[in-house]
Amino acid sequence: MSEKINKVLLAYSGGLDTSAIIPWLIDTYHCEVICYCANVGQEEELDHLEDRAKASGATKLIIDDLVEPLCKDYIWPLVKSGAIYERKYYLGTSIARPIVAKRLVEVAQQEHADAIAHGCTGKGNDQVRLENGIHSLDPSLKVIAPWRIWDFTSREDLLNYLDQKGIGYPDSAKNPKLFSRDRNIWHISHEGGPIENIDAEPDESFWVLTVSPEQAPDKPEYVEIEFEAGEAVAVNGKKMTPAQIVHELNVIGGRNGIGRCDMVENRLVGMKSHGLYETPGGTILCTAHSELEFVTCDRETMHFKDTVSPKWAELVYNGQWFSPLVQSLNVFFDETNKWVTGSIKLKLYKGNIIIAGRKPKYNLYNENFASFGDVSLYDHKDATGFISCFSLPGKVIAMMKKQTGLE
After folding, report:
1. Coil, helix or strand for 56?
2. Which of 52, 56, 97, 189 is catalytic?
3. Domain count, the chain
4. Catalytic residue chosen out of the listed positions 13, 17, 81, 183
5. Is 126 a catalytic residue?
6. pTM reported for the whole predicted model
7. CA 130 to CA 11: how far, in whole Å?
8. Is 218 a catalytic residue?
9. Is 180 a catalytic residue?
10. Are 105 and 36 spatial neighbours (Cβ–Cβ below 8 Å)?
11. Are 169 and 16 in contact, with CB atoms under 8 Å apart?
């Protein structure tokens, strides 16, 4: 290589790709490799990572526990926004990438690394999300994306390369059923292998966090979530941290078959992809938050928010968290959530979420206004003038058509 790189910080997962990237970086750049892993709720995937990284040639592994800040600073804004990508996707993978990119930059600066490397493929969204985040925070850092450089073209090539070097890899690397899983505290995604066939019902063995609705309990389970200014603060009367709330709702939702998503989506890079997503706690949380908004937000605010939430989802999906527009919209969502305080009770039953009660602190629903019998606050006769004014444009158009013969 023409440019001299002395030290590389690798975004490390311990999977097949990053296991092969460590020796490849050393062979290619003759550099030191430091591995970095962000704990965003991968659970058992973090076991034995340090030994594996060093065995592959890295000088050390740095692990950060980012679960609480991920929930507080990224997932809570997501809930406030009401954003869902393409009507189905709760941005499970997307929402964790900004905090990972941020910490990669910070650690690279602390370790005086010349470059950051990652194992994202050239077909996926994550390469854009990570690199856009890195460039937005420190344009001076180089980014190395081996899948866009090296000569390997398949998993078999990587397995052969590691075998030749005598470097071990996780047993799951040879699993032909699933090529890719991404897990954090908010969700888990499943892609590749037989899932690429969109005409086949997913095998029940693919799912991890949720039971099937058929296997869920025959008795409904009730859960009550309390919010303060749009942020969940308690579940069933128990105060918890953001991460504890998401974890608790994951367990509750998972055992009731809540939060499965089978989706063909439009990737940023231009192709469609098929994925299975599980977001049990997030589905419950977003449903409860949305329901509380219905009784605490005025009509114009709600309707305008419904126009900008999809844009926020698209921006975050595309890896633009650090853009001025996302940051500005976050301020808007904070403002609109000032009155979203109270609790929502939900009934969970075999994959369904049913509203079972609303207790808003700031209630815009007035039973007297809504009543058909009480005319002290709203007289039915008042509607006559309103309808006359509201329908005037239609009347004028109809008159014009009649006079001109226009159809």
Report:
1. coil
2. 97
3. 3
4. 17
5. yes
6. 0.93
7. 10
8. no
9. yes
10. no
11. yes
Distance CA 105, CA 99 (A): 10
Q: How far is CA 80 from CA 266, 352, 369, in A?
A: 24, 22, 28
> CA 100, CA 20: separation in Å to the nearest integer?
21
- φ/ψ (deg, to 5) at 348: -105, 125
Whether 328 is catalytic: no
Classify residue 81: in a domain, yes or no: no
Relative to beta strand 142-144, strand 272-278 is unpaired
Instruction: For the chain, list residues with pLDDT below 50.
Output: 1
CATH number reported for the structural domain that contains residue 132 in this entry:
3.40.50.620
Specify the amino acid at residue 129.
R
Domain ranges, residue 28? 7-66+94-177
* 191 close to 273: Cβ distance less than 8 angstroms: yes
Residues 152 and 217 placed together within one structural domain of the fold: no
- Tens digit of each residue's pLDDT (9 = 90 or more) over 201-212: 999 999 999 999
Distance CA 269, CA 331 (A): 29
pLDDT digits (tens, 9 = 90+) for 47-65: 789 999 999 999 999 999 9
Catalytic residue among 126, 189, 260, 343: 126
If asked whether residues 113 and 244 sit together in one domain, one would say no
> Facing residues of 144 across strands?
117
Convert the pLDDT of each residue in 16-27 to its tens digit.
Answer: 999 999 999 999
